[in-house]
Amino acid sequence: MTDQSGADLQEQIGALILGDRNDRANLTEADHLVLVRRAGAAEQASQRLQHLAVAAARSAGVSWAALGRELGMSRQAAQQRFGGRPEEPAPDDRERWLGPVTAFDEMAELELAGRLGWRTIGVDMLRHRMLRTDTQWEHRRVLWARPAQHYETDGWQVGCRAFPWLYLVRDLHRAPEDG
Question: CA–CA separation, 3 vs 7, rounded Å?
Answer without folding.
Answer: 6
